[in-house]
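**Protein fold record**
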Amino acid sequence: MWSQAVELLAEAERLHRRFFRLSAVETAPAWEPPIDVFEDEREIVVVVAMPGVAAERVHVALDGATLVVRGTRQLPFDGARFRLRQLEIPYGAFERRFTLPAGTFELGRPELVQGCLVLRLKKRER
């Protein structure tokens, strides 16, 4: 039984590293959600994949020329009722930083759409 648990954890870690790069939020271990970035002459749109993350667990900020998205994804089924059989989706604290191109931006209201956080950064005249 112990060897099965170790094998499951090793497989989960392998898959976790394959799909999500590890990062650090201060000193706590963390995961880094994948993003897509789109740009036109008016705005930059950043789509952050974070299924299962509640809106109240996400913080978005502009830190100089860096867009910072951080939060927490909790296990949906914790407690003594369930045994862990397979774990591929990352949980816990996460942080993603994206360096913006040169310019001045206004961050619009974040939206959660189909498990993704959509951030619109309107380009402002200098």
User: Anything to note?
Assistant: The first strand starts at residue 22 and ends at 25. The chain has one domain: 2-124. Residues 22-27 have pLDDT under 50 and may be disordered. The longest helix spans residues 2-19.
